[in-house]
């Protein structure tokens, strides 16, 4: 449900109704089904979505399909970035990828970081209010669930502009985790995926309004770069431009 709502948040669309379709294995216990239902109920309450119904079938594996419906007078597209726009994102990035590496590869970390990283995997959140209340400032936007590199690449291609990244949208503990485990922090930040943040471009005249909103609502807002003429996504470091390749999720590949 959060993944669907995150898409709506980035487009400035208020979610209203949802439909759930389930394929449940025969061996799935009643307790597990009740826990699954409780999770949907909790998310529906948090985002004020009414579940209209759905469909239930039996199968070999658990399959969850959620469809969301909503309304908006204006939908922010991904192709509206303009030269000299600023690139912003909610965040931070890197915790989801770090959490998976801890869970699947037993990477070492502090207890505090482990809790934070695993929460990013098991209890992700999205920025619905940020999108709904600030969409008029966005010239283009997308949700980042396919990975930050994929999101930036798609917005760059659709807008036919070059995106230059000047700041990595993450925190010190992510850098420390990557360093202690000899991991590429850029890979954690740009290619992790399943991080339901908003990536947007805005006219510089709106940046202070957005920062004020973010501070008031305790949201980490990162100003990570700018839009210019050209094509591609680049990371500006020590005066050099390093191309950021699309390393996120590729659908149907």
From TrEMBL:
Molecular function (Gene Ontology), one example: thiamine-phosphate kinase activity
Domain PurM-like N-terminal: 3-70
InterPro entries cross-referenced by the UniProt entry: PurM-like_C_sf (IPR036676), PurM-like_N (IPR016188), PurM-like_N_sf (IPR036921), ThiL-like (IPR006283)
GO BP terms, alphabetized: thiamine biosynthetic process
Name of the protein: PurM-like N-terminal domain-containing protein
Species assigned in the record: marine metagenome
């Amino acid at each position: 449900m959060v993944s669907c709502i995150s898409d709506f948040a980035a487009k400035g669309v208020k979610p209203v109704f949802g439909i759930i379709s389930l394929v449940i294995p025969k061996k799935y216990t009643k307790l597990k089904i009740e826990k699954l239902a409780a999770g949907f109920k909790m998310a529906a309450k948090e985002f004020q979505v009414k579940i209209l119904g759905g469909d239930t079938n039996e199968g070999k594996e658990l399959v969850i399909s959620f469809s969301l419906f909503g309304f908006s007078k204006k939908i922010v597209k991904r192709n509206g970035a303009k030269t000299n726009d600023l690139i912003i994102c909610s965040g931070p990035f890197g915790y989801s990828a770090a959490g998976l590496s801890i869970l699947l590869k037993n990477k070492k970390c502090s207890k505090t970081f482990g809790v934070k990283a695993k929460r990013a995997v098991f209890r992700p959140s999205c920025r619905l209010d940020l999108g709904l209340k600030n969409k008029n400032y966005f010239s283009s936007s997308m949700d980042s669930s396919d990975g930050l590199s994929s999101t930036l690449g798609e917005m760059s291609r659709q807008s036919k502009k070059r995106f230059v990244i000047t700041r990595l949208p993450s925190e010190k503990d992510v850098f420390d985790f990557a360093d202690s485990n000899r991991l590429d922090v850029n890979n954690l930040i740009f290619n992790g995926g399943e991080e339901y943040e908003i990536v947007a471009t805005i006219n510089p005249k709106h940046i202070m309004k957005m920062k004020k909103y973010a501070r008031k609502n305790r949201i980490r807002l990162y100003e990570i770069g700018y839009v210019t003429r050209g094509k591609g996504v680049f990371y500006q470091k020590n005066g050099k431009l390093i191309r950021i390749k699309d390393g996120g999720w590729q659908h149907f590949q």
